[in-house]
Amino acid sequence: MKFTGELNWNNAFYHSRHSQTVVELPLKLKKGIAISNNDTAATKTINRLVFSINNKQQISSYHEMIATNEDINKLSKKINYFSIPKNFTGLVILTNQKRVLKQYRQYKNGNINHFKNAPSIYFYCWRIVENFSDGSYRPITEWSCSGGGGGGFNPHNGGGGGPCGNGNGNITAKPCPGDPVKNLEIVSSGTSGKRGGTFGCTRKDKKEKCGGVKGLKGHEGLDLKATPNSDVFSMYDGKVVNLRGSFAPGAYKKDSKGNFVLVSYRINGEPIYVQYNHLNKVSVTKGQLPAI
């Protein structure tokens, strides 16, 4: 409900079929807020709060989003949970209160596309974004993601795919806020080179053994080049679950991650953790939400 501007109880409607009653409540997002597919903020959406009541009088609630490029003002009076107008082309997506995908329907010219497992075949990631008058937009958080052949997805950072807007009608130079590194590159690790800055058995060490191979040392992270004392942003809105800030700036201790911040994210209901290590300074607090 954080991004909800208005719930129109006067225009709520219900319908029943197969021992199931569905109540749909029109939902308007706050001014300037929209739900966008990947890096495109142009798709039109109809949003509704849906209550489903089964024959045992059990109630479930969902966010129903209808995405299309058609005239949504005319369409909103014709479409509902059980009924799709002729020639409709678009998507009907239901998520629960945790933004976990519960139902996915894709239509073309009024006909549903039948897939054995549509979300695993087609990659869709929808974000809640803030649109600015200059045509730019700022991603706020993921709404729901699915697909990618079951391989998950890489959360978007704050940069987005469009121009950078500052919220005051002005275009700012890239990198966008929240995406501060222009040319991200892996840092070389001594004689191991840039490969040593990647995850896995990637470092050379005659005294070590990794993956059953002598002379290799394991590396648990990904080393990215950054200017000392430059800001580091969480790649995705999440919660700070652990941190350490006791190391002096620039201090290094072998086999230690130094100052770090551990952030938890929830993707399609599953927890994912990313730890940011070797920080000069920690400026967030444990439990902070969102972590940015």
UniProtKB/TrEMBL annotation:
SUPFAM superfamilies: Duplicated hybrid motif. InterPro entries: Dup_hybrid_motif. CDD domains: M23_peptidase. This is Peptidase M23 domain-containing protein.
